[in-house]
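Entry for the shared binder. Reason: the reviewer on the internal report wants the predicted structure included alongside the sequence.
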Amino acid sequence: MIMNYKRRTTISVAIGDTPLGSDYPIRVQSMTNTSTNDIEASVAQCRRIADAGADYVRLTAQGVREADNIGEIRSRLRAEGYMVPLVADIHFNPKAAFEAAQKTDKVRINPGNFVDAARTFKKLTYTDEEYRQELQRIHDALVPFIALCREHHTAVRLGVNHGSLSDRIMSRYGDTPAGMVESVMEFLRVFVAENFLNVVISIKASNTVVMVETVRRLVRAMDAEDMHFPLHLGVTEAGDGEDGRIKSAVGIGTLLAEGLGDTIRVSLSEEPEAEIPVARKLVDYITSRAGHKPIEGGISKGYDPVCPQRRVTNEVAGVMGGRMKPIVIADLAPKALKGKMRPDFFFAADGCPDDCGNDRFIVPQALYKGYANESPLFTLAEIEALQACKAPLKWLVVSDDVAIEKLEPLRGDTATVLIVEPANVNVPAGEQAFLHALTDAGITLPAVIKNTYSDTDDEWLQVKAGADFGTLLLNGFSDGIWLSAPRFADADRVVRYELGILQASRLRMSKTEFISCPGCGRTLYDLQTTVKRVKEATSHLSHLKIGIMGCIVNGPGEMADADYGYVGAAAGKISLYKNKECVERNIPEAEAIPRLIALIKANGDWIEPEA
């Protein structure tokens, strides 16, 4: 982990006329959801994606015919003046990869299914010699493919997905970040041995915690073997709307903030061109930190930056801290909220109103600013006044550059909560440096992170808040968050964004979790309409995770922690899952949602929606 923003140094990779790597800007990309056999529709969608600002466009290639079609699509785009590199996405079919290597700018292959059969979740047993033979089989399959890519100057993406690890990897390593890393390293070692370095790596999951840990593990593994390949970042099956944007900002933003990532895709269950502005905002926001005022400090003793544990804090008044779920604070009046989602605390600038009801408030008498007159140092008198306060919770606002020794009088205090505000344009790094220093000092006061944004645009607020708070939360600093957006018009959305960030960080569930893919040429039904219909039928089931997947490539695996799954099985046919088990196969699409509801009811998980 670094406190001062700096891109990780990588080698450069040639992809058409748009090279990739640390010497070049972070690239953004998307993927078509048209059938690759519909050349006209695919060309038109590639144009729209490129016009939106994409640096690369990916298309699915189930077979040789589709791979050949990508070459025709590329020729037509070039004739129209569109030079955007095209990437062929391959699963299960090495013959399609060989064809695509001759027709496209980059070929994505998945180590989980390029050589191994489709995942069946079967437990396999290998002796060391049998496993060595499996690695030789990978080598023998890759060498001619590498030779063809070298001949045609075609780049390769090794793309591992949490949802499509092979049974071989699963049997030896389990469904773990370590298994995902080894899946790609097995292939990468062959490329390095063959001295073919025109390679990009992606290693993705729909679970942001798994995704972030896995990328960090991959970088550590590559560093150990003196490999410096560029990274493609993404949160798979992020969903649509604000959920998809926030979840992507949490996962991708956390890694970008550490200098990791050379190209990104924000995967939304929407039209692919809608992904580009979100990705561009995220890249622009993080890279704007370059050259910021240096931040002193480092990580605390015993802290694991690859797989962080939650910071140890006191539990305060049975409300927050300790092992309790993170709280949400909102600086708005309760009457401003129309929806059902509510924060844990309101900040009442004018004191608790007469009609406060059951809502909890932070009132000015219990909120102490720790840096009066713009000074980051507060006085002993202010500390004594705080300790004399009779409120059950005492809130001390501090800038993240406050001197830690000024907090010594509060050592062991079990009633005070810190509100930490940023003092650096690199918002999460400054806040983390302060909290690491607090940990090393042995001060266990719980801390709420308060970030203030002047944005009035939904997408900008989702991206900034998701990336900033997500970084703190995924790194173990999770007692609470306070998103202050004084110029933002919709109070309900501010609270939804706060709770959405906590849910995307896998720390607190407040609504149904929908794990939905963005769709591609393999999708077997109208994904966007279906996502909307499934949400309408089940969005009141806030205790459940529901997967909505276009096909079986990543479906059963990527939604492995979902309670129920809706997966395209064939044209017009749907299969339903309970956890990882397929319980109903090839249901007519018209019957699928009623049957999904029936399945949820049969397992005792249905709750009738409120009138």
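Summary line for the report: Residues 547 and 565 are 4 Å apart (CA to CA).
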